[in-house]
Design goal:
This protein is an alpha+beta fold. It has a domain of 304 residues: Hypothetical protein af1432. 42% of the residues lie in helices and 12% in strands. The strands form four sheets. Strands 2-1-4-3 form a four-stranded mixed beta sheet. Strands 7-11-8 form a three-stranded antiparallel beta sheet. Helix 6 crosses helix 9 and helix 8 packs antiparallel against helix 9. It comes from Solanum bulbocastanum (Wild potato).
Length: 495
Protein backbone atom coordinates (compact mmCIF):
# COMPACT_ATOMS: atom_id res chain seq x y z
CA UNK A 1 0.00 0.00 0.00
CA UNK A 2 1.13 3.58 -0.47
CA UNK A 3 4.64 4.76 0.15
CA UNK A 4 6.52 3.18 2.97
CA UNK A 5 8.14 6.35 4.25
CA UNK A 6 6.79 8.23 7.22
CA UNK A 7 6.69 11.43 5.16
CA UNK A 8 3.56 10.36 3.31
CA UNK A 9 1.49 9.54 6.36
CA UNK A 10 3.09 11.63 9.11
CA UNK A 11 1.51 14.89 10.24
CA UNK A 12 3.89 15.53 13.12
CA UNK A 13 6.17 17.89 11.21
CA UNK A 14 3.27 20.13 10.24
CA UNK A 15 1.62 20.49 13.63
CA UNK A 16 2.24 23.58 15.74
CA UNK A 17 2.34 22.41 19.34
CA UNK A 18 2.76 25.93 20.67
CA UNK A 19 -1.00 26.26 20.48
CA UNK A 20 -1.51 22.92 22.21
CA UNK A 21 0.12 21.36 25.27
CA UNK A 22 3.75 21.89 26.29
CA UNK A 23 5.84 18.97 25.06
CA UNK A 24 7.35 18.61 28.53
CA UNK A 25 4.03 17.24 29.77
CA UNK A 26 3.21 15.09 26.74
CA UNK A 27 4.13 11.54 25.87
CA UNK A 28 5.34 10.60 22.45
CA UNK A 29 4.41 7.33 20.76
CA UNK A 30 5.78 6.32 17.39
CA UNK A 31 2.97 4.83 15.33
CA UNK A 32 3.76 2.84 12.19
CA UNK A 33 1.08 4.71 10.23
CA UNK A 34 1.08 8.30 11.49
CA UNK A 35 4.60 8.62 12.85
CA UNK A 36 5.02 10.45 16.16
CA UNK A 37 1.81 10.81 18.16
CA UNK A 38 1.80 13.17 21.15
CA UNK A 39 -0.58 12.43 24.01
CA UNK A 40 -1.47 15.28 26.34
CA UNK A 41 -1.91 14.91 30.13
CA UNK A 42 -5.71 14.75 30.20
CA UNK A 43 -5.77 11.81 27.81
CA UNK A 44 -2.98 10.05 29.67
CA UNK A 45 -5.33 9.83 32.64
CA UNK A 46 -7.45 7.46 30.57
CA UNK A 47 -4.44 5.43 29.42
CA UNK A 48 -1.67 5.54 32.00
CA UNK A 49 -1.26 4.87 35.71
CA UNK A 50 1.27 6.03 38.25
CA UNK A 51 2.80 2.54 38.20
CA UNK A 52 3.28 2.64 34.44
CA UNK A 53 4.87 6.09 34.34
CA UNK A 54 7.71 4.87 36.56
CA UNK A 55 8.56 2.32 33.87
CA UNK A 56 8.88 4.59 30.83
CA UNK A 57 12.23 5.79 29.56
CA UNK A 58 13.13 9.49 29.37
CA UNK A 59 14.94 11.07 26.47
CA UNK A 60 16.25 14.54 27.33
CA UNK A 61 16.68 17.17 24.65
CA UNK A 62 17.99 20.57 25.83
CA UNK A 63 15.54 22.01 28.34
CA UNK A 64 12.56 19.83 27.39
CA UNK A 65 11.80 16.23 28.25
CA UNK A 66 9.99 13.98 25.79
CA UNK A 67 8.65 10.74 27.25
CA UNK A 68 8.89 7.93 24.73
CA UNK A 69 6.38 5.16 25.33
CA UNK A 70 7.20 1.55 24.53
CA UNK A 71 3.82 0.12 23.53
CA UNK A 72 4.92 -3.35 24.59
CA UNK A 73 5.04 -2.18 28.22
CA UNK A 74 1.52 -0.87 28.42
CA UNK A 75 -0.32 -4.14 28.84
CA UNK A 76 1.95 -5.53 31.54
CA UNK A 77 2.26 -2.50 33.77
CA UNK A 78 -1.14 -0.85 33.74
CA UNK A 79 -3.23 -1.48 36.82
CA UNK A 80 -6.36 -0.17 35.14
CA UNK A 81 -6.92 -2.32 32.10
CA UNK A 82 -9.95 -0.60 30.58
CA UNK A 83 -8.12 1.15 27.77
CA UNK A 84 -5.05 -1.02 27.28
CA UNK A 85 -7.21 -4.13 27.06
CA UNK A 86 -7.85 -2.86 23.54
CA UNK A 87 -4.44 -4.39 22.82
CA UNK A 88 -6.10 -7.80 23.24
CA UNK A 89 -8.72 -6.97 20.62
CA UNK A 90 -7.48 -7.44 17.08
CA UNK A 91 -8.86 -4.78 14.78
CA UNK A 92 -9.76 -7.32 12.08
CA UNK A 93 -10.94 -10.13 14.31
CA UNK A 94 -9.86 -13.49 12.89
CA UNK A 95 -8.52 -12.10 9.61
CA UNK A 96 -4.96 -12.68 10.85
CA UNK A 97 -5.58 -16.41 10.38
CA UNK A 98 -5.75 -15.72 6.64
CA UNK A 99 -3.66 -12.55 6.42
CA UNK A 100 -0.81 -13.09 8.92
CA UNK A 101 0.04 -9.39 9.02
CA UNK A 102 -3.41 -8.39 10.28
CA UNK A 103 -2.45 -8.53 13.94
CA UNK A 104 -2.90 -4.84 14.73
CA UNK A 105 -5.25 -4.09 17.60
CA UNK A 106 -7.90 -1.56 18.51
CA UNK A 107 -5.32 0.02 20.78
CA UNK A 108 -3.28 1.29 17.83
CA UNK A 109 -6.45 2.25 15.98
CA UNK A 110 -7.71 4.27 18.95
CA UNK A 111 -4.43 6.15 19.19
CA UNK A 112 -4.58 6.80 15.46
CA UNK A 113 -8.13 8.13 15.63
CA UNK A 114 -7.15 10.34 18.58
CA UNK A 115 -4.30 11.81 16.55
CA UNK A 116 -6.30 12.33 13.35
CA UNK A 117 -9.17 13.89 15.33
CA UNK A 118 -6.63 16.33 16.71
CA UNK A 119 -5.32 17.07 13.21
CA UNK A 120 -8.79 17.45 11.68
CA UNK A 121 -10.12 19.92 14.23
CA UNK A 122 -6.89 21.95 14.10
CA UNK A 123 -7.08 22.11 10.29
CA UNK A 124 -10.62 23.46 10.51
CA UNK A 125 -9.62 25.94 13.18
CA UNK A 126 -6.70 27.17 11.07
CA UNK A 127 -8.87 27.88 8.03
CA UNK A 128 -12.24 28.74 9.58
CA UNK A 129 -11.60 29.16 13.30
CA UNK A 130 -13.11 32.61 13.64
CA UNK A 131 -16.08 31.77 11.45
CA UNK A 132 -16.87 28.46 13.18
CA UNK A 133 -16.00 29.52 16.71
CA UNK A 134 -13.84 26.46 17.40
CA UNK A 135 -12.41 26.72 20.91
CA UNK A 136 -10.26 24.67 23.29
CA UNK A 137 -13.34 22.87 24.63
CA UNK A 138 -14.22 21.66 21.11
CA UNK A 139 -10.68 20.43 20.45
CA UNK A 140 -10.49 18.62 23.78
CA UNK A 141 -13.85 16.95 23.26
CA UNK A 142 -13.17 15.73 19.72
CA UNK A 143 -9.78 14.29 20.70
CA UNK A 144 -11.19 12.47 23.72
CA UNK A 145 -14.04 11.04 21.66
CA UNK A 146 -11.51 9.76 19.14
CA UNK A 147 -9.41 8.14 21.84
CA UNK A 148 -12.31 6.39 23.59
CA UNK A 149 -14.71 5.63 20.74
CA UNK A 150 -13.91 1.88 20.74
CA UNK A 151 -13.28 1.31 24.43
CA UNK A 152 -16.49 -0.73 24.72
CA UNK A 153 -15.76 -2.98 21.75
CA UNK A 154 -16.16 -6.74 22.04
CA UNK A 155 -13.82 -9.45 20.72
CA UNK A 156 -13.37 -10.58 17.12
CA UNK A 157 -14.23 -7.28 15.43
CA UNK A 158 -18.04 -7.02 15.03
CA UNK A 159 -18.64 -10.76 15.26
CA UNK A 160 -19.36 -10.67 19.01
CA UNK A 161 -22.00 -7.98 18.68
CA UNK A 162 -23.66 -8.94 15.40
CA UNK A 163 -23.38 -12.73 15.33
CA UNK A 164 -22.83 -14.14 18.83
CA UNK A 165 -25.10 -12.00 21.02
CA UNK A 166 -28.20 -12.33 18.79
CA UNK A 167 -27.97 -16.12 19.16
CA UNK A 168 -27.60 -16.23 22.94
CA UNK A 169 -29.49 -13.07 23.93
CA UNK A 170 -32.16 -12.76 21.28
CA UNK A 171 -33.83 -9.36 21.30
CA UNK A 172 -31.11 -7.74 23.40
CA UNK A 173 -30.61 -4.08 22.50
CA UNK A 174 -26.85 -3.75 22.91
CA UNK A 175 -24.07 -1.96 21.04
CA UNK A 176 -20.37 -1.39 21.60
CA UNK A 177 -20.98 2.36 21.28
CA UNK A 178 -23.36 2.28 24.24
CA UNK A 179 -20.88 0.19 26.23
CA UNK A 180 -18.17 2.70 25.35
CA UNK A 181 -20.07 5.57 26.97
CA UNK A 182 -20.88 3.39 30.00
CA UNK A 183 -17.19 2.54 30.27
CA UNK A 184 -16.27 6.22 30.17
CA UNK A 185 -18.56 6.98 33.12
CA UNK A 186 -17.12 4.01 35.00
CA UNK A 187 -13.50 5.03 34.39
CA UNK A 188 -14.11 8.65 35.41
CA UNK A 189 -15.76 7.51 38.66
CA UNK A 190 -13.30 4.69 39.37
CA UNK A 191 -10.18 6.76 38.80
CA UNK A 192 -11.69 10.03 40.02
CA UNK A 193 -10.63 11.89 36.92
CA UNK A 194 -11.17 15.61 37.31
CA UNK A 195 -12.94 16.52 34.10
CA UNK A 196 -15.85 18.81 33.35
CA UNK A 197 -19.19 16.98 33.16
CA UNK A 198 -20.09 18.97 30.05
CA UNK A 199 -17.03 17.63 28.28
CA UNK A 200 -17.91 14.04 29.15
CA UNK A 201 -21.51 14.55 28.02
CA UNK A 202 -20.44 15.86 24.64
CA UNK A 203 -17.83 13.11 24.23
CA UNK A 204 -20.56 10.52 24.75
CA UNK A 205 -22.83 12.30 22.28
CA UNK A 206 -20.09 12.17 19.65
CA UNK A 207 -19.43 8.47 20.19
CA UNK A 208 -23.13 7.61 19.97
CA UNK A 209 -23.74 9.82 16.94
CA UNK A 210 -23.44 6.88 14.53
CA UNK A 211 -25.56 4.43 16.51
CA UNK A 212 -29.25 3.90 17.14
CA UNK A 213 -28.62 4.96 20.74
CA UNK A 214 -27.92 8.54 19.67
CA UNK A 215 -28.36 10.97 22.55
CA UNK A 216 -30.30 14.21 22.31
CA UNK A 217 -27.59 16.70 21.49
CA UNK A 218 -26.95 19.32 24.14
CA UNK A 219 -26.64 21.99 21.46
CA UNK A 220 -27.60 22.29 17.82
CA UNK A 221 -24.46 24.34 17.21
CA UNK A 222 -21.28 22.97 15.64
CA UNK A 223 -22.89 19.79 14.35
CA UNK A 224 -19.92 19.32 12.03
CA UNK A 225 -17.84 18.30 15.06
CA UNK A 226 -19.98 15.18 15.42
CA UNK A 227 -18.96 14.07 11.92
CA UNK A 228 -15.25 13.97 12.71
CA UNK A 229 -15.20 10.81 14.86
CA UNK A 230 -18.57 9.13 14.26
CA UNK A 231 -20.90 10.46 11.60
CA UNK A 232 -24.51 10.40 12.74
CA UNK A 233 -25.84 11.66 9.42
CA UNK A 234 -24.06 9.51 6.86
CA UNK A 235 -20.86 7.57 7.51
CA UNK A 236 -18.71 5.44 5.27
CA UNK A 237 -20.12 2.15 6.47
CA UNK A 238 -20.80 -1.19 4.81
CA UNK A 239 -24.41 -0.19 4.29
CA UNK A 240 -24.05 3.50 3.58
CA UNK A 241 -21.40 5.48 1.73
CA UNK A 242 -21.62 9.22 1.22
CA UNK A 243 -19.05 11.42 -0.41
CA UNK A 244 -19.72 14.57 1.55
CA UNK A 245 -20.63 13.66 5.11
CA UNK A 246 -17.66 11.46 5.84
CA UNK A 247 -17.09 10.05 9.31
CA UNK A 248 -13.59 11.34 8.96
CA UNK A 249 -10.86 10.07 11.16
CA UNK A 250 -12.08 6.62 12.20
CA UNK A 251 -12.49 5.50 8.59
CA UNK A 252 -9.35 7.25 7.41
CA UNK A 253 -7.28 5.46 10.03
CA UNK A 254 -8.60 1.94 9.58
CA UNK A 255 -8.57 2.08 5.78
CA UNK A 256 -4.87 2.96 5.75
CA UNK A 257 -3.99 0.75 8.73
CA UNK A 258 -5.85 -2.32 7.48
CA UNK A 259 -4.45 -1.93 3.96
CA UNK A 260 -0.91 -1.69 5.25
CA UNK A 261 -1.28 -4.65 7.62
CA UNK A 262 -2.73 -6.90 4.92
CA UNK A 263 -0.48 -5.58 2.14
CA UNK A 264 -3.39 -5.18 -0.27
CA UNK A 265 -2.25 -1.82 -1.59
CA UNK A 266 -3.69 1.61 -0.89
CA UNK A 267 -3.16 4.76 -2.94
CA UNK A 268 -5.83 6.75 -1.14
CA UNK A 269 -4.25 9.81 0.50
CA UNK A 270 -6.48 11.18 3.22
CA UNK A 271 -4.01 14.01 3.92
CA UNK A 272 -5.26 15.85 0.85
CA UNK A 273 -8.87 15.67 2.01
CA UNK A 274 -8.02 16.81 5.52
CA UNK A 275 -5.98 19.73 4.22
CA UNK A 276 -8.69 21.07 1.91
CA UNK A 277 -11.90 20.19 3.78
CA UNK A 278 -14.17 23.05 4.79
CA UNK A 279 -17.42 23.44 6.72
CA UNK A 280 -20.41 24.60 4.73
CA UNK A 281 -23.96 24.49 6.06
CA UNK A 282 -22.69 22.82 9.26
CA UNK A 283 -21.30 19.92 7.23
CA UNK A 284 -17.71 18.96 6.43
CA UNK A 285 -17.33 19.26 2.67
CA UNK A 286 -14.68 18.77 0.00
CA UNK A 287 -13.62 20.55 -3.16
CA UNK A 288 -14.91 19.40 -6.53
CA UNK A 289 -11.35 18.90 -7.75
CA UNK A 290 -10.90 16.22 -5.05
CA UNK A 291 -13.46 13.87 -6.60
CA UNK A 292 -10.69 11.50 -7.72
CA UNK A 293 -9.47 11.19 -4.14
CA UNK A 294 -13.04 10.45 -3.01
CA UNK A 295 -13.27 7.82 -5.72
CA UNK A 296 -10.08 6.17 -4.42
CA UNK A 297 -11.61 6.14 -0.95
CA UNK A 298 -14.65 4.21 -2.19
CA UNK A 299 -12.50 1.87 -4.27
CA UNK A 300 -10.13 1.10 -1.39
CA UNK A 301 -13.04 0.48 0.98
CA UNK A 302 -14.60 -1.89 -1.55
CA UNK A 303 -11.33 -3.76 -2.01
CA UNK A 304 -10.98 -4.25 1.74
CA UNK A 305 -14.47 -5.69 1.99
CA UNK A 306 -14.17 -8.02 -0.95
CA UNK A 307 -10.64 -9.26 -0.33
CA UNK A 308 -10.30 -9.21 3.48
CA UNK A 309 -13.43 -8.59 5.56
CA UNK A 310 -15.61 -11.04 3.58
CA UNK A 311 -12.90 -13.45 2.43
CA UNK A 312 -14.36 -16.98 2.21
CA UNK A 313 -11.89 -18.47 4.70
CA UNK A 314 -12.29 -15.55 7.10
CA UNK A 315 -16.06 -16.02 7.09
CA UNK A 316 -15.69 -19.78 7.61
CA UNK A 317 -13.47 -19.21 10.66
CA UNK A 318 -15.90 -16.62 12.00
CA UNK A 319 -18.78 -19.09 11.73
CA UNK A 320 -16.78 -21.68 13.67
CA UNK A 321 -15.77 -19.19 16.37
CA UNK A 322 -19.39 -18.14 16.83
CA UNK A 323 -20.47 -21.78 17.16
CA UNK A 324 -17.72 -22.38 19.72
CA UNK A 325 -18.74 -19.35 21.78
CA UNK A 326 -22.42 -20.26 21.64
CA UNK A 327 -21.70 -23.80 22.86
CA UNK A 328 -19.51 -22.43 25.68
CA UNK A 329 -21.90 -19.71 26.78
CA UNK A 330 -24.12 -21.83 29.04
CA UNK A 331 -21.09 -22.92 31.05
CA UNK A 332 -18.92 -19.78 30.99
CA UNK A 333 -21.81 -17.31 30.98
CA UNK A 334 -19.94 -15.16 28.48
CA UNK A 335 -22.91 -12.99 27.63
CA UNK A 336 -23.58 -12.16 31.28
CA UNK A 337 -20.45 -9.98 31.40
CA UNK A 338 -21.94 -7.34 29.12
CA UNK A 339 -24.35 -6.03 31.73
CA UNK A 340 -22.02 -3.67 33.57
CA UNK A 341 -18.70 -1.96 32.72
CA UNK A 342 -17.05 -3.31 35.88
CA UNK A 343 -17.54 -6.86 34.54
CA UNK A 344 -17.12 -6.15 30.86
CA UNK A 345 -13.35 -6.27 30.83
CA UNK A 346 -12.96 -9.40 32.91
CA UNK A 347 -9.60 -10.82 31.82
CA UNK A 348 -9.83 -13.77 29.43
CA UNK A 349 -13.58 -13.46 28.87
CA UNK A 350 -14.45 -10.53 26.62
CA UNK A 351 -11.32 -10.17 24.56
CA UNK A 352 -9.60 -12.35 21.98
CA UNK A 353 -7.93 -14.44 24.71
CA UNK A 354 -11.23 -16.19 25.37
CA UNK A 355 -10.25 -18.80 22.76
CA UNK A 356 -7.20 -19.74 24.80
CA UNK A 357 -9.37 -19.83 27.93
CA UNK A 358 -11.64 -22.40 26.27
CA UNK A 359 -8.78 -24.38 24.73
CA UNK A 360 -6.93 -24.88 28.01
CA UNK A 361 -9.97 -25.56 30.20
CA UNK A 362 -10.30 -29.24 31.17
CA UNK A 363 -14.03 -28.99 31.83
CA UNK A 364 -16.05 -31.60 29.92
CA UNK A 365 -18.80 -29.02 29.39
CA UNK A 366 -16.47 -27.20 27.00
CA UNK A 367 -15.47 -30.21 24.90
CA UNK A 368 -17.57 -29.27 21.86
CA UNK A 369 -16.18 -25.74 21.91
CA UNK A 370 -12.62 -27.02 22.32
CA UNK A 371 -13.07 -29.38 19.39
CA UNK A 372 -14.26 -26.56 17.14
CA UNK A 373 -11.32 -24.34 18.09
CA UNK A 374 -8.96 -27.26 17.52
CA UNK A 375 -10.42 -27.66 14.04
CA UNK A 376 -9.67 -24.00 13.38
CA UNK A 377 -6.09 -24.46 14.59
CA UNK A 378 -5.66 -27.48 12.32
CA UNK A 379 -7.28 -25.68 9.39
CA UNK A 380 -10.12 -28.18 9.27
CA UNK A 381 -12.60 -25.45 8.43
CA UNK A 382 -16.22 -25.40 7.43
CA UNK A 383 -16.24 -26.03 3.70
CA UNK A 384 -17.28 -23.27 1.36
CA UNK A 385 -19.95 -24.72 -0.93
CA UNK A 386 -21.48 -21.99 -3.02
CA UNK A 387 -22.37 -18.33 -3.21
CA UNK A 388 -25.05 -16.39 -4.95
CA UNK A 389 -25.00 -12.74 -5.98
CA UNK A 390 -28.49 -11.32 -5.78
CA UNK A 391 -29.58 -9.64 -9.04
CA UNK A 392 -29.83 -5.87 -8.70
CA UNK A 393 -33.50 -5.84 -9.59
CA UNK A 394 -34.26 -8.18 -6.65
CA UNK A 395 -32.16 -6.54 -3.96
CA UNK A 396 -34.83 -4.31 -2.46
CA UNK A 397 -37.19 -7.23 -1.80
CA UNK A 398 -34.64 -9.95 -1.09
CA UNK A 399 -34.62 -11.34 2.45
CA UNK A 400 -31.59 -12.84 4.16
CA UNK A 401 -31.18 -16.53 3.41
CA UNK A 402 -31.08 -18.88 6.40
CA UNK A 403 -29.98 -22.45 6.97
CA UNK A 404 -33.67 -23.30 7.30
CA UNK A 405 -34.27 -22.08 3.73
CA UNK A 406 -31.50 -24.32 2.42
CA UNK A 407 -32.65 -27.41 4.30
CA UNK A 408 -36.29 -26.97 3.33
CA UNK A 409 -35.38 -26.91 -0.35
CA UNK A 410 -33.76 -30.34 -0.35
CA UNK A 411 -35.29 -33.21 -2.25
CA UNK A 412 -35.56 -36.71 -0.87
CA UNK A 413 -32.24 -38.53 -1.11
CA UNK A 414 -30.08 -40.93 0.83
CA UNK A 415 -28.48 -38.06 2.75
CA UNK A 416 -30.74 -35.62 4.57
CA UNK A 417 -29.30 -32.32 5.77
CA UNK A 418 -30.20 -30.78 9.10
CA UNK A 419 -29.95 -27.08 9.88
CA UNK A 420 -26.91 -27.82 12.05
CA UNK A 421 -25.11 -29.15 8.97
CA UNK A 422 -25.08 -25.88 7.05
CA UNK A 423 -24.40 -22.22 7.74
CA UNK A 424 -25.22 -19.21 5.64
CA UNK A 425 -23.57 -15.81 5.72
CA UNK A 426 -25.32 -12.85 4.13
CA UNK A 427 -23.27 -9.88 2.96
CA UNK A 428 -24.59 -6.52 1.82
CA UNK A 429 -22.20 -3.86 0.59
CA UNK A 430 -23.44 -0.44 -0.45
CA UNK A 431 -20.51 1.41 -1.95
CA UNK A 432 -22.28 4.73 -2.32
CA UNK A 433 -25.69 5.96 -1.24
CA UNK A 434 -28.01 3.27 -2.45
CA UNK A 435 -28.71 4.07 -6.10
CA UNK A 436 -27.52 7.68 -5.92
CA UNK A 437 -24.33 8.94 -7.51
CA UNK A 438 -21.89 9.80 -4.69
CA UNK A 439 -19.82 11.99 -7.00
CA UNK A 440 -22.43 14.54 -7.98
CA UNK A 441 -22.39 17.12 -5.14
CA UNK A 442 -19.27 18.87 -3.87
CA UNK A 443 -18.35 22.33 -2.70
CA UNK A 444 -17.07 25.13 -4.93
CA UNK A 445 -14.37 27.16 -3.26
CA UNK A 446 -14.77 30.91 -3.33
CA UNK A 447 -16.24 33.83 -1.44
CA UNK A 448 -18.72 32.68 -0.44
CA UNK A 449 -18.38 28.91 -0.77
CA UNK A 450 -21.31 27.12 -2.39
CA UNK A 451 -22.48 23.62 -3.17
CA UNK A 452 -21.65 22.36 -6.65
CA UNK A 453 -23.45 19.66 -8.63
CA UNK A 454 -20.94 17.54 -10.53
CA UNK A 455 -22.94 15.95 -13.33
CA UNK A 456 -22.09 12.67 -15.01
CA UNK A 457 -20.91 14.52 -18.11
CA UNK A 458 -18.10 15.94 -15.98
CA UNK A 459 -16.87 12.51 -14.89
CA UNK A 460 -14.39 10.34 -16.72
CA UNK A 461 -15.49 7.02 -18.21
CA UNK A 462 -13.79 4.93 -15.46
CA UNK A 463 -15.68 6.85 -12.77
CA UNK A 464 -18.98 6.45 -14.59
CA UNK A 465 -18.23 2.72 -14.79
CA UNK A 466 -17.46 2.75 -11.07
CA UNK A 467 -20.75 4.42 -10.24
CA UNK A 468 -22.72 2.06 -12.47
CA UNK A 469 -21.31 -0.96 -10.64
CA UNK A 470 -21.53 0.42 -7.12
CA UNK A 471 -25.22 0.00 -6.43
CA UNK A 472 -26.26 -2.12 -3.43
CA UNK A 473 -24.64 -5.54 -3.63
CA UNK A 474 -26.07 -8.58 -1.88
CA UNK A 475 -24.26 -11.88 -1.61
CA UNK A 476 -24.92 -14.94 0.47
CA UNK A 477 -22.46 -17.79 0.89
CA UNK A 478 -23.15 -21.35 1.97
CA UNK A 479 -20.86 -23.37 4.23
CA UNK A 480 -21.05 -26.93 5.55
CA UNK A 481 -19.52 -28.47 8.64
CA UNK A 482 -18.17 -31.36 6.62
CA UNK A 483 -16.73 -31.82 3.15
CA UNK A 484 -19.51 -31.84 0.61
CA UNK A 485 -20.65 -30.14 -2.54
CA UNK A 486 -23.93 -28.24 -2.55
CA UNK A 487 -23.23 -26.26 -5.72
CA UNK A 488 -26.17 -27.83 -7.53
CA UNK A 489 -28.44 -27.77 -4.51
CA UNK A 490 -32.12 -27.19 -5.47
CA UNK A 491 -32.28 -23.92 -3.54
CA UNK A 492 -29.88 -22.26 -5.96
CA UNK A 493 -31.71 -23.59 -9.00
CA UNK A 494 -34.90 -21.87 -7.87
CA UNK A 495 -33.36 -18.39 -7.61
Amino acid sequence: MGASSNEELNFSSNFNFASSQDLRFSKQIHDNVHGNIYIDPLYLKFIDTEQFQRQVSLSCTSSSVVVVVDLSLLHADCKYMYFVELRDLKQLGVAHMVYPGAVHSRFEHSLGVYWLANEAVHKLKTHQGMELGIDHFDIQTVKLAGLLHDIGHGPFSHLFEREFLPQVRNGLDWSHEQMSVDMIDHIVDERRIDIDSGTIKKVKEMILASSKFTLTKSSREKQFLYDIVANGRNGIDVDNFHWMKLSLVCRFDYIVRDSRACAVGCNFQFERLMETMRVLGDEICYRAKDYLTIHKLFATRADLHRTIYTHAKVKAIELMIVDALVKANDYLHISSHIEHPSQYWKVGMLDDTILKTIETAPDPELKESRDLILRVRRRDLYQFCNEYAVPRDKIEHFKDVTAHDIVCSQKSSSEILNEEDVAVTNVRIDLTRGRHNPLERFVKMGHPMQFLHLHRTSLSIPLLHFYHHSEPFNLFSLYAGWTCCLCQYPFFQGL
